[in-house]
Design a protein that fits this description.
about 400 residues; Aminopeptidase; 2 domains; 6-stranded antiparallel β-sheet; 11 helices
């Protein structure tokens, strides 16, 4: 398991903002050390015609610059291979180089600009790189840059092999309790299909009765004392989906992220009773401060459908946060990756997080189908539980392509 001490990405933030239902607590925010630069570098190519014969001279793209020669070299290697595949294969994902092989050769006389941020206290460095209308995403580890994804001008993006499927958990830990060893009161599978810029948010009722390697449990109780790894293992078995990994957040991180955004702008389809001492929520467009947004994520007693309706609300919050974040522009992505993970845990690599965040950033919120797996409330011994309906298997199978409602 990887713990990021101070990271964040506006887009991934978006996917976990609704994943919280614990009790409120105070939030202390510490300014993060940053490394943020914007550079412009000249890039020259001998030609824009892709030559692949063995008799013609091997073409290459020469990159010069005085800000970060390692980034120049990474871009030069990628563009040279794109221009002429007889060049050495660049240090980039195999899927990305295969994708470039299907595209027209790059133009000559290229310039690029980059927005760069070092994560945490001397951690990995990530970048958003612009070459005219093309955008790339870069990762620097141990002094070497690697281009890990991007969207060439006029083309669909390549941001990892599709579909991207991850488990997002909201911890119910109180002040002083271990967020990774307490109940998981919010359980969602997020699907993204970068090249189609679509996806899905699928909520799993927290009281779902599951069979696990540790025995039979309410899903919400499984993480308590055991951690998110068994949640991922069980979710993979339950859904039959190849989940890449997990992201865990809690109400502290949720509130901190919404504080950064200045609250939550959301359009509720109906009025909602809180079911406790909190004020009710009217229908329609409204601006919620972080405290009220947290209350919206937590209410269930006043909602028809209880936990099912709460899980659907959490998906709405994710979509609303996306609508707030995306107008800030793709260059805010490094900052937001750094913000989200200030209060989150994940077993994903930085490379996978960056491309996942970019995929979420480039996907319109309304392109994500928000759905909750249906079930029936029953009892297992003395416990009230949810037994998933038989159609749950079809829903999980439908999500295998990263979307819902297309089968």
């Amino acid at each position: 398991m990887r713990r990021f001490t101070f990271l964040s990405s506006l887009t991934l933030a978006v996917l976990v903002l609704g994943a919280c239902s614990g009790t409120e607590e105070s939030v202390a925010t510490t300014a993060a050390p940053t490394s943020l630069v914007t550079t412009t570098t000249a890039v020259q190519a001998t030609t824009s015609t892709k030559l692949t014969t063995t008799t013609a001279p091997i073409l290459s793209v020469m990159v010069t610059g005085d800000v970060d020669p390692e980034l120049d070299a990474a871009l030069g290697d990628l563009y040279s291979y794109w221009l002429d595949p007889r060049n050495p294969t660049p240090d980039a994902p195999a899927g990305l180089t295969a994708f470039l092989a299907t595209l027209p050769a790059p133009a000559a006389d290229i310039t690029y600009t980059s927005t760069v941020r070092t994560l945490g206290d001397g951690g990995d460095t990530i970048a958003v790189i612009h070459v005219d209308e093309t955008v790339w995403f870069g990762l620097k580890v141990d002094g070497s840059w690697r281009i890990v994804g991007g969207q060439p001008a006029g083309q669909v993006p390549w941001l990892g092999d599709s579909p991207r499927l991850v488990l997002v958990l909201g911890s119910d830990a109180r002040v002083g309790q271990n967020q990774l060893r307490f109940r998981a009161d919010s359980i969602h599978v997020i699907g993204l299909v970068p090249e189609q810029q679509t996806g899905a948010i699928l909520g799993i009722p927290r009281d779902t009765y599951v069979t696990t390697s540790e025995g039979d449990f309410k899903f919400t109780n499984l993480m308590a004392g055991r951690g998110p790894e068994i949640m991922l293992e069980t979710a993979t078995d339950l859904t039959g989906l190849p989940l890449e990994g997990y992201i865990v957040t809690g109400f502290k991180g949720y509130t901190a992220l919404l504080t950064q955004l200045g609250g939550l702008s959301i359009n509720l389809p109906t009025s909602m009773r809180s079911g406790n001492n909190w004020s009710n929520f009217p229908a329609g467009q409204q601006q919620l401060n972080p405290t009220r947004a947290l209350q919206l994520a937590r209410i269930r007693k006043g909602l028809p459908g209880g936990d099912f309706a709460r899980s659907l609300n959490q998906g709405r919050i994710m979509q609303a946060a996306m609508d707030m974040i995306q107008p800030m522009g793709i260059d805010s992505l490094p900052l937001m990756v750094d913000l989200l993970l200030q209060n989150a845990w994940t077993d994903l690599t930085t490379e996978d997080l960056l491309t996942l965040a970019a995929a979420a950033y480039l996907t319109p919120s309304q392109a994500l189908v928000n759905q909750v797996v249906p079930g029936t409330v029953g009892r297992a011994g003395s416990a009230s539980v949810v037994f998933l309906d038989p159609e749950a298997a079809d829903i999980f199978a439908d999500l295998a392509d990263g979307t819902l409602g297309n089968s």
